């Protein structure tokens, strides 16, 4: 208990505080949803970057995990996670060598590819073992990021993977735009038919994204072609998901704890959490987070170390702690070396965010 912040067990701010019970409830709830729809879960660890929660997701029923970077996957492999999909085009000799080393020490490694250049690099690297690399074709079903543009291109790349001795065609993958579940069905439905015509089996259709997680299994109640779902943000949730109606504020497991360090006017509070703690990610929203317990507070500006909050006069005092639900929680996890884990018995422990900063 702190004299300057009697309601907090955290010595110094800004800090990440995670309510473990809420995170575990979010894992269980979404796993039950996927189980109910016969869809496999392969959660994206980019949100939490913690072996503890990756293991919790597997224990809850996930078949494996998703990482974005080889560095994240290496951390997870060190922690015993042994079925990993890296949703990235891996290019260049240095990264390919790391990929090969990683494949040699876990049960199943998969990656995505959307060009012949990527596939050929993977094929050359894995031609002589040590293990087969599973490769999914990434399809752009509307998000406008990576991915082949047509079902025919997907089939051509699948055939190229299938013909490479060290590779296994592992299916089709997409990261849809929010609201894009129907586009996924259309694109993947056509691609499945075209693959069947070529005599190529498609082991998995992997989609993802927390904004539409409750549509996983079938948008509009129809049975989906999607067999595997990669949700990331769902474990903590964040302000963007609250605003989209995908969860309630009580479902947000991670907050940034900050201290009011200045009250230059009665209605302007300055906290010690700026863009280095909350990130500048707006995700299309107005304001930089939700201040718990202060519904009228608006985080109107951030500089690196300062957050400016407009509040009704008298609602905050210098030295007071506040808890902020960030707009985009995944990037916030990447900004801190450690997180404080609040257990259901009220105790708090500090843990390293093991896979933060793994940008290669
Ligand atoms: C390829 C891929 N799959 C899955 C996810 C998880 O999305 P979300 O955090 O919305 O659940 C992401 C997030 O960036 C992603 O890039």
Report on the architecture of this protein.
The structure is a single chain. By secondary structure, this protein is an alpha/beta fold. The chain has ten helices and 17 strands. The strands form two sheets. Strands 1, 10, 11, 12, 13, 14, 15, 16 and 17 form a nine-stranded mixed β-sheet that branches. An eight-stranded parallel β-sheet has the order 2-9-8-7-6-5-4-3. Strand 13 and strand 14 form a beta hairpin. The chain is elongated and about 70 Å long. The two termini are 40 Å apart. The mean pLDDT is 96. It binds pyridoxal-5'-phosphate (PLP). The site of pyridoxal-5'-phosphate (PLP) has 16 residues, from loops.
Q: DSSP strand (E) fraction?
A: 15-25%
Associated small molecules: pyridoxal-5'-phosphate
Q: Look at the helices and sheets and give the structural class.
A: alpha/beta
Q: Tell me the Rg in angstroms.
A: 22 Å
Determine the N-to-C terminus distance.
40 Å
Number of helices: 10
How would you characterize the largest beta sheet? 9 strands, mixed
Low-confidence stretches: none
Q: Give the H and E element order.
A: EHEHEHEHEHEHEHEEHEEHEEEEHEE
Number of strands: 17
Please state the overall shape, judged from the principal axes of the Cα atoms.
elongated
Q: In percent, how helical is the residue content?
A: 25-40%
Rounded mean pLDDT score: 96
